[in-house]
Amino acid sequence: MTWWAIYGPLPRRFAINNSGAHMLRRKQVPARDNLAPAVPQSGCATCPNRCLTGAEKLVGVGFRYWLAGYQTGDIACWEQAWNVFANDLGSTKAKAAITELSCWVRTIKSSSRRTIEVYPGPCRLFCQDECLAVSMVAASQHNLCPALRANAFCLIENSDIHSVVEGAQTFGDLL
Fold it and tell me: Which residues contact 43 (CB under 8 A, 6 or more apart)?
């Protein structure tokens, strides 16, 4: 006599595989691209306040504006990034920093298996993807390779992270 003949049908969360063994079904989650964009929150485990300052804010804002420029095709986003970097670093250092930022962001965009999310330009808080990008640069500056690689993998959801890691290290070394 079978199990379900005695106890009834299996609950929906169980399935039977080809060998007849019972196993949990994988929870069906909608694709990330179908979800509504994230809304600013007061904190998370990645970045407790999501309100960055100093160099971290510079990296986060630069990442936000540069990626928004790729996503919208609006050159004004890149001009805003330039203005922020030029005001903080001066035009000579800003030119080199923007060059490395653009290469790094382009690599992230082309390597990612999903759409990278960023908050609108004037928002003072940072979303999870922006925090991951900032964490990548910080990890590269502190020679924390495992953290850098983990953040890169979480950001692009792709195992081919070498070029993204290299870009973060180059950008971090420049700053």
Answer: 49, 50
